[in-house]
Amino acid sequence: MKISEVVKRNKQKLADRLKRTLRRGPVTLEELSSRYDRGVDQIRAAIEELREHGFNCQIKAGAAEILRDMRAGGVHRIDKKLLNGRSYLFGVVSDTHLGSKYSRLDALNAIYDRFQAEGVKDVYHGGNLIDGQSRFNRFDLVPGADSFEGQLKIAAHDYPKRKGLTTHFICGDDHEGWYAQREGINVGQVMQDRFAQAGRTDLHYLSYLEADILIPSAEGRAWIRLMHPGGGTAYATSYNLQKICESFQGGEKPDMVLVAHYHKADFEPTRDVLGFQTGCVQDQTPFMRKKRLQAHVGAWLIETTQTARGHFSRVKQEWMRFYDRGFYTGEKYPRW
User: Fold this and answer.
1) Which tens digits make up the pLDDT trace of 199-243?
2) pTM to 2 decimals?
3) At 247, which CATH number?
4) What is the three-class DSSP state of 208?
5) Do 155 and 50 reside in the same domain of the chain?
C-alpha cells in the first residue's frame, strides 16, 4: 500500500473516532490530543475535515463539539430585476417528501409546468423537501432512499427543473432535520452542496426553520416570512396559522407569512398579516391516517402589488389543487 493511502486511511480513522466522541458533548482539544495521541494541529485538521463532510462542528473556548441543533433564520433579498414595476409573481410549494412512495412527482411536475407558463422566476419551498428516515416511515421509502445521501441523489434527479426557475428552500427540524438531530449533520448546507455537485444550481438553500424574504420598493420594502414550524395539526385547519400570526411580537410582524409543515392549504389575514398555509405535494401516508390527518395536495401561485413605501396593496392568490393518484389513473386502489 502506498504511503499516501496509509496517511489518508489514518486521517479517516481519526475523523471517525472524533465523530463518535464529539457527538457526546464538548471535549477540549488538549484532551482529544492526549486521548488519541495526536498533536493539537492534527486534531484541528480532522475536525475541519468533518466540517467539510457536512458535520456541524464547533470549536469554542478551546473545546470541540458536534452540534445537533441548527441556528434558525436567514434573509433573502429579492433582485429588483425580478419585479414587474411594483408587482412580484412567485410560486409556493412545500412538504414534497422526495424519497417517499407517497410523494406526488406527477403533481409536482405539473405545478412547475404551470409556474413556467405563468412566468414565475422564484419558487419558495417551505421545507421537508426529502422524507428523511425514522422508525415510522421506514416502510414508506422508495428503493435507494435508505440513507441521507441516497435521498439527496433522488431529489437531485427527480425534483423538477425548468429553465429560468429557481427554487429557494428551507429545512425543517423534522424529516431532513432528523439527520441534524441524530447525527449532527449541517443538513441544509450538505443538501446545497450535493445539488450543486449534481448540476442543480437552480436549488438554493435559504436557512433552517425559517427565512425572511425582503421585496424592495422605491421608499421601503415588504417582508415575507417562510416558516416550517412544529407541533401537530390542530382541531381546525385555520387554528395554527391564526395562532402563529397572533404570536408575532408587536412591531415585528411580517407583511405575509407562508406556513408549511401541517400539509394544509389555507389563507387567513390575521393582525394585518397575510397568512398562508402552503399545503403539500405528498398523498396521505399511513402515519397521517393513524393521526386522522388530511393532506391538501397542491401549491400556491401568488402575485403581490406594493405601494411606493412597500406595503402590499393587492394580493392575488391561486390554489392549484390535486387529487389522489387514482383520480388521474382510473385505478380504484392505485397502490395495491
Assistant:
1) 999 999 999 999 999 999 989 999 999 999 999 888 899 999 999
2) 0.92
3) 3.60.21.10
4) strand
5) no
